[in-house]
């Protein structure tokens, strides 16, 4: 064990000779870490007092944090995951909750050694589900470069082995396999205009794919459906089962971050064949509704013809050239209200919805025809505001699970010297709690999945994200699935990026998972009662363009902020959901009265378990029988959480306490786990004085800010408070307990984990 030191700089030199350092070098896992230690010694002198080097060995020994015995192995033992109203239950009636992460591209096909490591890492940190994301891209995933509906045999076998390995550990899989399907030369004769697809626009990293336009054209849809069915029919040699028969495959998502409204318009500008085909389809739809061009003009008004000359002039029903612009911007509430032909917009919106809905229903029918009985989600992305938003959400609801994405902080995929740092504020001071605003898309009678999210560097407060999602999202809002984005290594990362800012492996993210997963699987935080039971809309409302409320989406990159008639802080009080009804809803939504849940600058959940403090940047406390804690800017405040009293001295902290046992609360457990986290920075990382520019990114090793807090608890009088290393193993060091009170200083202890044991 390293001897105590007075400063981070001195610590950097001394640690290199301790037993833990020798163990790290011996495993061959941290050569880069050693280089960083030696190169950054001088820089370390500039670190504030109380910061320490994060130095895990990434062992898979369970220690006090390990959760392998909490995962119900093998995955699938209870049958397929199914919908039961707005909850997920397995076929044998066992309730299900999924706390997961993402693997991307070829990371779904690791080597056998890496597959074993990943499964062990997931089990240790309580991760019971992995979403396999965009893994069919040729060259970057397992897809063939010859035909887009085939697979590279070696890579498919590696994925098969990984799936079997995860399932043995009790880890389920979800497929998000299609993110812009990429046709290959062997598909040429199957497409209406292959060269137009390969040369089409859209987001640069999706160019040459069917992204966006697939929702509108049957020839493109056929590729998506065929590759999915082939994969479902494939027999995994390591399980002996078709994927269609494998209950370890708990959900299939039809397409990632896509819909008929998002980018199709821009793509079709350079795709004349497909543009003409869509006009032909829309004209046939109008012919069926109105019968003649004259009746169409009577309904739309003369100004409705050639309404958008940048897209089409000389429109006439008999020519079959009336174009429905598949672009969300043309259907925003203010645009519809001011349009000289409102009815044209309403008709086009309904048509685009029917195109997307027909695609989804055809896709679902094909999947079910294989015998697959698990969950299905449509997509997971926004579609603007007003009509596109609700039509898109309705199409998803008709499929099954509602799935959405959101991110907070950050300023791009990678950190770079001199970059503008973006939003550097904590999400705790925002009404919607940052990530939580996605909950405005939760639909009554449907489970909810949050399949991509994270708090991104260089925002310094990112440790707040997982507790917000776990306690307010999965807990209070009753969400069913979470997949943090993304984990493509087995262990803690040694810097803020791994290799980008979407980094589950940062200690600020996965570090709190051993507590959060225990709380979720035990059901510590209960779902709240609905805050507003009358947030309703029907297909008839959408067809008329008459919705009794309005929500708006504000987008900056991957980060979305939702706002509207429903106050965003309702998400901190109780369950929020939208209801799709059969009949026209005539009444307008009345904003809920939330005053009864406000008290002295605090906002309390209607479960009584969560309390937000809106002062000083924001914080919240969680108080359940088995889990208690404080997150945020709680310096100097005393939190009486039943018989546990926490007083945080540090400016910012994540301090969470939970029973380590599934069947015991904190009142009678034999062992409890405490996690304390704050900020993390790379060695050499530097901000401008105003905190708006990341002047230097720095690199490994990672430094963590220590946390000071006092814990008072009558049970401490008979306990031993163990300091754990960064892998959750006992160090042999303890924290003294004086009359049922202990002073925690994680900077002094160089720790993020503590175990309280009654031995």
Describe this structure in words.
The model is unreliable at 1-46 (pLDDT under 50). The protein has a ten-stranded antiparallel β-sheet with strand order 19-20-21-22-23-26-27-36-33-34, with helices on one face. An eight-stranded parallel β-sheet has the order 10-9-6-5-4-14-13-11. A four-stranded antiparallel β-sheet has the order 24-25-32-35. The two termini are 24 Å apart. It has 18 helices and 36 strands. Helix 8 (218-233) runs parallel beside helix 13. It has a domain at 272-349. With 759 residues, the chain is an alpha+beta fold.
Topology:
Layout: H1 8-14, H2 19-27, H3 31-39, H4 41-44, E1 51-53, E2 81-84, E3 87-90, E4 98-104, H5 112-124, E5 129-133, H6 153-168, E6 172-176, H7 194-198, H8 218-233, E7 235-236, E8 241-242, E9 249-253, H9 264-268, H10 272-290, H11 293-300, H12 333-338, H13 342-369, E10 375-377, H14 387-399, E11 402-409, E12 419-420, E13 448-456, H15 465-476, E14 481-484, H16 513-522, E15 536-538, H17 539-544, E16 551-556, E17 559-564, E18 579-581, E19 598-599, E20 602-604, E21 610-613, E22 619-623, E23 627-632, E24 638-641, E25 644-648, E26 653-659, E27 671-677, E28 680-683, E29 686-687, E30 693-696, E31 699-705, E32 708-712, E33 720-724, E34 730-735, E35 741-745, H18 746-749, E36 753-757
Parallel strand pairs: 4-5, 4-14, 5-6, 6-9, 9-10, 11-13, 13-14, 15-18
Antiparallel strand pairs: 1-31, 2-3, 7-8, 12-30, 16-17, 19-20, 20-21, 21-22, 22-23, 23-26, 24-25, 25-32, 26-27, 27-36, 28-31, 29-30, 32-35, 33-34, 33-36
Helix pairs in contact: 5-6, 8-13, 13-14, 15-16
């Amino acid at each position: 064990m390293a001897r105590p030191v007075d400063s981070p700089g001195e610590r950097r030199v001394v640690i290199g000779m301790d037993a833990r350092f020798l163990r790290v070098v011996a495993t061959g896992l941290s050569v880069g870490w050693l280089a960083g230690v030696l190169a950054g010694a001088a820089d370390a002198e500039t670190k504030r007092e109380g910061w320490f080097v994060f130095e895990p060995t990434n062992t898979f020994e369970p220690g006090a944090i390990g959760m392998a015995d909490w995962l119900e192995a093998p995955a699938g033992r209870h049958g397929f995951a199914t919908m039961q109203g707005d909850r997920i239950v397995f076929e044998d009636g066992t309730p299900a909750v999924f706390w997961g992460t993402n693997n991307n591209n070829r990371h779904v096909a690791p080597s056998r050694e890496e597959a074993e490591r990943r499964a062990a890492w997931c089990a240790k940190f309580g991760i019971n589900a992995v979403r396999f994301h965009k893994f069919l891209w040729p060259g970057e995933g397992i897809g063939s470069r010859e035909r887009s509906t085939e697979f590279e045999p070696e890579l498919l076998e590696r994925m098969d082995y990984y799936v079997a390995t995860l399932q043995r550990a009790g880890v389920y899989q979800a497929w998000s396999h299609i993110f812009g399907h990429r046709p290959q030369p062997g598909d040429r004769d199957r497409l209406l205009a292959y060269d137009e697809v390969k040369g089409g626009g859209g987001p640069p990293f999706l160019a040459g794919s069917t992204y966006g336009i697939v929702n509108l054209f049957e020839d493109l849809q056929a590729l998506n459906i065929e590759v999915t069915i082939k994969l479902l029919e494939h027999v995994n040699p390591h399980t002996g089962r078709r994927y269609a028969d494998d209950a370890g495959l708990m959900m299939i998502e039809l397409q990632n971050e896509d819909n008929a409204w998002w980018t199709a318009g821009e793509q079709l500008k350079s795709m004349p064949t497909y543009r003409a085909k869509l006009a032909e389809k829309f004209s046939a739809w109008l012919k069926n509704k109105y019968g003649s061009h004259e009746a169409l003009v009577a309904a739309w008004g003369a100004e409705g013809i050639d309404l958008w000359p940048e897209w089409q002039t000389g429109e006439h029903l008999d020519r079959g050239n009336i174009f429905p612009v598949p672009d969300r911007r043309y259907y925003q509430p203010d645009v519809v209200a001011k349009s000289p032909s409102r009815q044209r917009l309403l008709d086009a919106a309904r048509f685009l919805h029917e195109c997307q809905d027909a695609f989804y229903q055809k896709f679902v029918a094909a999947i079910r025809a294989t015998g697959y009985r698990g969950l299905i989600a449509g997509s997971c992305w926004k579609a603007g505001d007003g009509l596109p938003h609700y039509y898109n959400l309705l199409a998803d609801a008709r499929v099954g699970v509602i799935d959405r994405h959101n991110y907070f902080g950050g300023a791009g995929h990678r950190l770079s010297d001199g970059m503008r740092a973006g939003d550097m504020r904590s999400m705790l001071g925002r009404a919607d709690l940052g990530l939580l605003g996605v909950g405005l898309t939760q639909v009554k009678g449907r489970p909810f999945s949050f399949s991509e999210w994270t708090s991104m560097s260089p925002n310094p407060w990112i440790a707040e994200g997982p507790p917000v999602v776990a306690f307010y999202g999965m807990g209070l809002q009753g969400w069913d699935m979470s997949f943090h984005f993304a984990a493509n290594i087995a262990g803690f990362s040694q810097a803020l990026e791994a290799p980008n800012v979407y980094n589950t492996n940062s200690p600020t993210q996965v570090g709190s998972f051993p507590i959060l997963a225990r709380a979720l699987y035990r059901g510590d935080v209960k779902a709240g009662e609905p805050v507003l039971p009358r947030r309703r809309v029907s297909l008839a409302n959408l067809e008329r363009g008459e919705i009794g409320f309005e929500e708006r989406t504000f987008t900056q990159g991957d980060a979305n902020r939702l706002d509207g008639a429903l106050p965003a802080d309702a998400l901190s009080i109780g369950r929020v959901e939208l209801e799709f009804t059969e009949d026209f809803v005539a009444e307008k939504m009345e904003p809920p009265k939330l005053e009864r849940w406000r008290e002295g600058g605090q906002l309390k959940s209607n479960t009584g378990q969560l309390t937000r403090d809106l002062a000083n940047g924001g914080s919240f406390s969680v108080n359940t029988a088995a889990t208690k804690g404080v997150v945020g800017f709680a310096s100097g405040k005393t939190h009486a959480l039943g018989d546990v009293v926490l007083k945080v001295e540090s400016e910012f902290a994540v301090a969470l306490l939970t029973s380590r046992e599934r069947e015991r609360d904190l009142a009678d457990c034999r062992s409890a786990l405490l996690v304390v986290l704050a900020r993390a920075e790379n060695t050499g990382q530097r901000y401008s004085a105003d905190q708006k520019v990341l002047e230097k990114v720095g690199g490994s090793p990672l430094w963590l800010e220590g946390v000071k807090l006092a814990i008072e608890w009558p049970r401490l009088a008979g306990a031993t408070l163990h300091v754990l290393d960064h892998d959750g193993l006992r160090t042999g060091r303890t924290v003294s307990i004086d009359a049922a009170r202990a002073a925690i200083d994680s900077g002094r202890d160089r720790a993020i984990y503590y175990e309280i044991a009654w031995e």
